[in-house]
Every structure is written in structure tokens, then in C-alpha cells.
Design brief:
The chain is of the alpha/beta class. It is 34% helix and 16% strand.
Length: 490
């Protein structure tokens, strides 16, 4: 493009400086290529873009921060909106854009690739270089001042968010999965956005997974400072209605799971994370339990159901848990052989096997070989001991495991186990019982099936008495589903 044509093109693009909706309609190839099925942004996206435009077009509000908070269910196109806004912001010379997300994985593997897709389609992409963690002006005079950067936050290092000044120009700060971003990052960002005569946009969005923190306050105590928008995924064009309806059917319309992932409403619980990272870290790294050898061993086996899942066998004795086997690709006979081997080697006082699905075949094989004593089936979907407290047995054993970890325990220094324990989310069912996220839904969030966590949790499905007599005179007492704290030796 020659110099005159480029100048005309630049004037055309920059006329949308205060009109993000007009820019989005003009800058992307709607009804073509990757956007062949779309004639423009979705309705809720149009509403947000229009609201930002109205704020900037009003001389009375242009130089006051435009703060927009979006709380929504899954699949509505939040990352697409972030990408559109980023590329619109960059149509203004020497604009600074900063993107962050709840986790570095979310930032680098989901949000930034989505931005890359929209960059490829943008009509003005020849102005910029798109790199691994930034998008910068190709004009060497503006490389440092006209740019977008992705920044992974840490609670102990907030300096990157303290230098967001861009006096007299434009700043965009975008938080994705904002519920997971700690208050200190919010506070540092807020303190930096004080430049006079500067166009400032602060957009925060995500699933409302926590009922405390600054994202929640955007819709509560601080709602007078924010344009708060709550989006029900079922009311958005292009979302997977069949999947959303199945969640409502499985979890209940008013469950916390559906409130967060479908309705875009905050949960009743303070946090959707069942077991905190601090608790797991303490058990994994800092504790060594001197255990009484007289305490009974309980062996648990979680059976793999899918190609990328693992069969896991572990033993818990009092306040210590160890993993003794991880396997992939084994059939039920092979798994049963390993269970029997460990039963003979470790002599557990109880063996618990996940009997749902193909796990039933393992139970049958073990019994067929004559190992019937002290063998227990676990069915996670069965009724809990107290249905008013726990939605089913799986919720019951995970909650008992959580209490065991909180009281101090020793677990392997295994990052997969730590991820399993910290990754599972929960909510409350319509009747107030604790309800765990399903494995399939964890996978949709990009997490693996929590096979190691389930193995440890299943060890709480039975209660056994500590050994009081010599081995030849042992009396075995098992109470499926009862409270394990009576024998833990604490």
C-alpha cells in the first residue's frame, strides 16, 4: 500500500477511536472464512461495545475510568470480546493494553491464542507484530509505547501492575477469569489508573466462581463504580444449549454449579474450590508423620474409564497416604492381578474398589480369585450417610478427606495428586447439600480426571478398628460410609 493510501486507511481506522462497535463491524471479515456463520458480534457483546462507546463519546465521562464487569456462564464468547476490544484499543496511537487472567495457563493457552486468531483477521494487523507475549507497533518509534502485553500475576509481585500509566493517551486493562485474581492485584491496578486527561478502560470478566473478593464486590459493595453485566449462557446465541440443559438436569437449576456455569450468578459458597492449595502444600511439602504401625491400612483403587485416565492404587494408614501403583491401558483382569498382589504384600485391613462402570469387572475378578474378605465396592453416586449434608457418597468421602488434610497429614510430593486435590470444584444442590463437580466437567475446564484424588478419597468410604489383639485373634469390624475420625489415632 503506497503512502497516500495508507494515510487514508489510517484515517478510516482511527475514526473509530471512540466507537468500538463500529470498529468491530468494520475491521473483521464477517460472513467470510472463520466468521462465515456470523454477521457481527453477539447481542451481549454489542451491548458492551456500545456502552463503552457511549462512555468515550461523552465529553463529561471520557477521561474518567470506564469500568465494566461481566459475570457469565460458560461459552458466551468472553475471550472473543476481549480480543475485539484489544484490537480496537490498538487503533489509537500509543495505546497500552495489559491482559491477565486467573491463571498463567488460562492466559497463555486460551486467551492469547484467541487474540492471535482475531489479530489474523483484523484489517489493520499489518501495523503490528504479534509475538509470544506481546503485540507491538511495527513503527520502531512506537514499539515501546504502542503495545499489548500479557502479564501473569503473582500475589507477592505486583510491580507489573503498578506501572500502567499512559498520561494523555489510552490504557486498557483486562482481567479474564477475574474471580481468581487476588485483591492485591486489583488494588495495585486501581492505584495506577489515576492519570488525568487519559482514556482508561478496565474490563473484568469471568465465571463467578467465588462469593468473596473484588470481582464479587463489582456487583455488590462497589457496584456504583462498575457497569455490571450478568449473562445467562442459555440466552446467548451460538452456545451449546444441549450441554447447558444437561447441566441443569444433572445438577439442578438452583445449584451452585448451574448458578456459576450457566446463569452467571455467584455461588452461595464462599469459594468453589473444595480443598485449598495451602492445605495441600502443607501436607505435601512440610509434614512428616510418625505413624503407629498398629493403625490399620486401607487400600483403595480408582479404575480408569477412558484412554487418558489412570488406574490408581494407594494405601492410607492413619495420617499418611502413599501411592503404590499408577497404570494406563490395563484391562480388568490385569488390574485385578495387581490389586491381589498388593493385598498379599501389604495385608490391608480393608480394600475399597471403585465399582462403577468397568470397575465392577475388577471387583468380580478379585472375588473370583477368592479374595472376598475385607473387599468393599464403592459407588460414588449412591446416597450419602447424611443426604442433607452431602449430595452423594463421592461428596461425602471428599469432604471427609478434606477434613483429614486440614488436621495435618502426609501425602506424596506428587504434582498430579496436588492438582487433583486442588482442582475439584463444588457447589450446593437445590436442597443445600454439598455437590461435587463431575469428572467430565473438569475435563471441559481443561483439567484431567482426578484419579489420584479419588483414590485417596475412597479410603474414607470404610471405617476399620485399630488392631487390638495379636494377628491370630483379630476381629474385623467395618462400617461402610461411617466417620473415620474414630480410629485415626489423632
Amino acid at each position: 500500500m503506497d503512502r497516500e493510501l495508507e494515510a487514508q486507511f489510517a484515517r478510516k481506522i482511527t475514526q473509530f477511536r471512540h466507537d468500538p462497535l463500529g470498529f468491530v463491524h468494520h475491521a473483521f471479515p464477517w460472513k467470510q472464512g472463520e466468521l462465515a456463520k456470523s454477521d457481527g458480534p453477539r447481542q451481549w457483546q454489542r451491548d458492551v461495545l456500545r456502552q463503552i462507546g457511549q462512555h468515550l463519546q461523552n465529553h463529561a465521562t471520557r477521561y474518567t475510568p470506564c469500568q465494566v464487569a461481566i459475570s457469565s456462564g460458560h461459552g458466551i464468547g468472553k475471550s472473543a470480546l476481549v480480543s475485539m476490544l484489544t484490537l480496537w484499543g490498538m487503533c489509537s496511537p500509543d495505546c497500552k493494553v495489559v491482559l491477565t487472567a486467573g491463571t498463567e495457563v488460562q492466559l497463555r493457552s486460551k486467551l492469547w491464542p484467541e487474540c492471535a486468531k482475531w489479530y489474523r483477521m483484523a484489517i489493520h494487523n499489518h501495523w503490528f507484530d504479534f509475538n509470544a507475549s506481546s503485540m507491538t507497533s511495527r513503527d520502531p518509534r512506537h514499539t515501546r509505547t504502542w503495545r499489548t502485553d500479557i502479564i501473569a500475576w503473582t500475589e507477592t509481585s505486583t510491580e507489573s501492575f503498578a506501572g500502567l500509566h499512559n498520561q494523555g493517551r489510552r490504557i486498557l486493562v483486562i482481567f479474564d477469569e477475574a474471580s481468581a485474581i487476588v485483591d492485591s492485584i486489583w488494588e495495585t491496578t486501581e492505584g495506577a489508573l489515576t492519570d488525568a486527561n487519559t482514556e482508561i478502560l478496565w474490563l473484568v470478566c469471568g465465571n463467578p466462581t467465588r462469593n468473596t473478593g473484588r470481582f464479587r464486590e463489582c456487583f455488590g459493595r462497589l457496584k456504583h463504580r462498575w457497569h455490571g453485566i450478568q449473562v445467562d449462557s442459555r440466552k446467548v446465541e451460538g452456545t451449546n444449549k444441549a450441554q447447558l440443559d444437561s447441566w441443569v438436569e444433572d445438577y439442578g437449576e438452583d445449584s451452585d454449579f448451574c448458578r456459576v456455569r450457566v446463569r452467571g450468578e455467584f455461588p452461595r459458597a464462599g469459594s468453589s474450590q473444595l480443598i485449598s492449595s495451602d492445605v495441600v502444600a502443607a501436607c505435601r511439602l512440610y509434614r512428616t508423620v510418625n505413624e503407629n504401625a498398629q493403625l490399620p491400612k486401607i487400600m483403595a483403587c480408582d479404575i480408569a474409564r477412558f484412554g487418558d485416565d489412570m488406574t490408581v492404587i494407594g494405601i492410607r494408614q492413619g495420617r499418611k497416604f502413599e501411592i503404590i501403583g499408577k497404570y494406563g491401558g490395563l484391562d480388568t483382569v490385569q488390574v485385578a492381578e495387581r490389586v491381589i498382589k498388593f493385598m498379599e504384600e501389604h495385608e490391608p485391613r480393608a480394600t475399597v474398589i471403585d465399582a462403577d462402570g468397568i470397575g465392577g469387572g475388577v471387583v468380580d475378578q478379585v472375588r473370583y480369585r477368592g479374595y472376598t474378605r475385607d473387599l468393599y465396592e464403592f459407588h460414588g453416586g449412591q446416597m450419602a450417610r447424611d443426604p442433607q449434608l452431602h449430595y452423594n457418597q463421592r461428596a461425602q468421602v471428599w469432604c471427609e478427606m478434606r477434613n483429614w488434610l486440614k488436621d495435618g497429614a502426609e501425602i506424596p510430593d506428587d504434582p498430579e495428586l496436588a492438582q487433583d486435590l486442588c482442582g475439584l470444584e463444588y457447589g450446593f444442590g437445590a436442597k443445600g447439600a454439598i455437590q461435587l463437580e463431575k469428572k467430565e466437567d473438569m475435563k471441559r475446564r481443561g483439567l484431567a480426571s482426578p484419579d489420584l484424588g479419588d483414590c485417596l478419597a475412597m479410603s474414607f468410604a470404610v471405617q476399620v478398628a485399630a488392631r487390638q489383639k495379636p494377628k491370630s485373634q483379630l476381629v474385623y469390624n467395618y462400617f461402610p460410609g461411617s466417620n473415620p475420625t474414630a480410629w485415626m489415632g489423632s
